[in-house]
C-alpha cells in the first residue's frame, strides 16, 4: 500500500511567502519580497552540492546562530523538566538490530508521529519492577534518562519549528534537487552521559521509505559531537550503488499493527539517477568519525551508511534532527512505514515554496531537479 505525496496528508510543505530567487556567485539565494537584505537565506554552493553527491553527507559549520542553539537547548530542558512520569509507559528506545531486543514498537512510539513524546535509555530503567509500584523504576533523574524526544517538534515546538520550516532550509532542499520537500520525523537525540545508547549502522531510507528512495536527514549539533562522546560515523560514498548503497531492508509496522519489524525491500533500492550494480560493501576501515562543532548542520543522504557508538563519556551529545522526503508526483510514501498519522489525526503538512528560476547553474537548468545521486 502506498499513497502519493500530493497536497493531502500526512505531510506539508517546506517554507514561506512569495520569494525572489537569484544566483550570486555560485550560491543560490532566496529572499522574501518584503525581507531586508540581512534576512536573505542562502542555499548551497556548487562545491557543497558536489561534495554531498560524492560523499553522501555534508557538514556545514556555524549553520545555527549561537542564539538559536541557546533557544533549542533551553526548549529541550523545558520539555525534559515539564513532562510527567505519572502516566508515562516508560517506553525504552531500542534499535532491535541484535538478538537480545526488539525495536521499540508499542503504541506510545507508533502514535508519536504528530506528537512530542519521550523515550528512555534502556540502561536508565531497572530490569526488575519496583516492589512498591510493580513498575520498572528509573535509575537516574528523568532529564538524564531520556534517549530522545520526538517526533513532531517541527510542528508543535515554536523554537524547533523556527529552525526547521524556513526559507534557508527550503533553499538547501531545492539545491539538493527536491521539487516538493516535505519534513517529517523530527527529534532531539540526547546521547546521555555514560549511558547514551549506540545506534548501529543503518541507512535512513530504510525507515522512511519512498518509492523511489528520496530521504535526506538534517542533523544539527546542539553540543559538540566529537570522537570522545559518540559522534556520527560515516562510510564515505556508501550511498552509491557500487558501494552497497542499495536499500535492501525496510523498517515497517507488522501486518497485524502490533509492533515493528525489518522486512526485505521489494521496491526500488536507489534514488533516480543511481542505477548502479553493487560492486563491494563498505569496509570497517573506511568509517570516518566526524568531529562536529555545536551549531553545525550535517546533511545525510538517505542511502549512506552511518552509525554512532554508545556514549561512555561524561559529556552529553545533544542533536536535533529531521528528515526531508520528496512529495512531488512520481514518489510514494509507503503505508507500511512505521511513521504514520495517528488514528483520527494527520501529520501537519509543511508549507512549500513554489520556485521558478530562469537562470542556469553550471550545466543544470535551475527550474528542474538537477541532482543525480551517485
From TrEMBL:
Cofactors named for this entry: Fe cation
Organism whose genome encodes this protein: Penicillium citrinum
Top-level taxon of the source organism: Eukaryota
PANTHER family xrefs: PHYTANOYL-COA DIOXYGENASE DOMAIN CONTAINING 1, PHYTANOYL-COA DIOXYGENASE DOMAIN-CONTAINING PROTEIN 1
Gene Ontology molecular function: dioxygenase activity; metal ion binding
SUPFAM superfamilies: Clavaminate synthase-like
The protein's name: Phytanoyl-CoA dioxygenase domain-containing protein 1
Claim: Iron is one of the keywords in the record: yes
Key words, A-Z: Dioxygenase, Iron, Metal-binding, Oxidoreductase
Family membership noted in the UniProt record: Belongs to the PhyH family.
Amino acid at each position: 500500500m502506498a499513497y502519493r505525496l500530493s497536497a493531502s496528508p500526512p505531510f506539508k510543505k517546506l517554507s514561506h511567502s512569495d520569494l525572489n530567487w537569484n544566483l550570486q556567485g555560485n550560491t543560490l539565494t532566496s529572499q522574501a519580497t518584503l525581507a531586508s537584505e540581512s534576512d536573505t537565506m542562502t542555499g548551497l554552493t556548487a562545491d557543497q552540492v558536489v561534495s554531498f553527491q560524492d560523499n553522501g553527507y555534508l557538514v556545514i559549520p556555524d549553520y545555527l546562530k549561537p542564539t538559536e542553539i541557546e533557544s533549542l537547548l533551553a526548549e529541550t530542558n523545558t520539555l525534559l523538566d515539564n513532562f510527567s512520569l505519572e502516566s508515562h509507559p516508560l517506553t525504552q528506545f531500542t534499535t532491535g538490530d541484535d538478538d537480545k531486543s526488539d525495536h521499540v514498537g508499542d503504541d506510545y512510539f507508533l502514535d508519536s508521529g504528530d506528537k512530542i513524546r519521550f523515550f528512555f535509555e534502556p540502561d536508565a530503567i531497572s530490569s526488575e519492577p519496583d516492589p512498591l509500584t510493580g513498575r520498572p523504576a528509573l535509575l537516574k533523574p528523568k532529564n538524564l534518562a531520556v534517549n530522545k524526544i520526538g517526533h513532531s517538534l517541527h510542528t508543535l515546538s515554536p523554537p524547533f519549528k523556527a529552525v526547521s520550516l524556513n526559507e534557508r532550509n527550503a533553499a538547501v532542499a531545492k539545491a539538493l534537487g527536491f521539487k516538493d520537500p516535505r519534513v517529517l520525523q523530527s527529534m532531539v537525540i540526547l546521547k546521555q552521559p555514560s549511558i547514551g545508547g549506540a545506534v548501529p549502522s543503518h541507512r535512513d531510507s530504510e525507515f522512511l521509505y519512498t518509492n523511489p528512495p528520496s530521504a535526506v536527514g538534517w542533523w544539527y549539533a546542539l553540543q559538540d559531537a566529537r570522537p570522545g562522546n559518540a559522534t556520527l560515523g560515516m562510510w564515505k560514498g556508501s550511498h552509491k550503488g557500487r558501494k552497497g548503497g542499495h536499500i535492501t531492508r525496510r523498517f515497517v509496522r507488522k501486518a497485524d499493527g502490533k509492533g515493528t519489524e525489518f522486512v526485505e525491500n521489494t521496491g526500488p533500492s536507489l534514488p533516480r539517477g543511481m542505477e548502479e550494480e553493487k560492486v563491494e560493501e563498505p569496509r570497517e576501515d573506511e568509517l570516518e568519525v566526524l568531529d562536529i562543532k555545536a551549531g553545525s548542520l550535517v546533511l545525510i543522504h538517505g542511502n549512506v551508511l552511518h552509525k554512532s557508538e554508545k556514549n561512555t563519556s561524561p559529556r552529553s551529545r545533544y542533536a536535533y534532527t529531521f528528515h526531508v522526503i520528496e512529495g512531488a508526483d512520481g514518489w510514494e510514501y509507503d503505508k507500511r512505514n512505521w511513521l504514520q498519522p495517528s488514528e483520527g489525526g494527520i501529520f501537519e503538512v509543511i508549507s512549500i515554496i513554489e520556485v521558478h528560476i530562469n537562470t542556469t547553474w553550471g550545466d543544470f537548468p535551475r527550474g528542474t531537479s538537477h541532482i543525480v545521486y551517485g
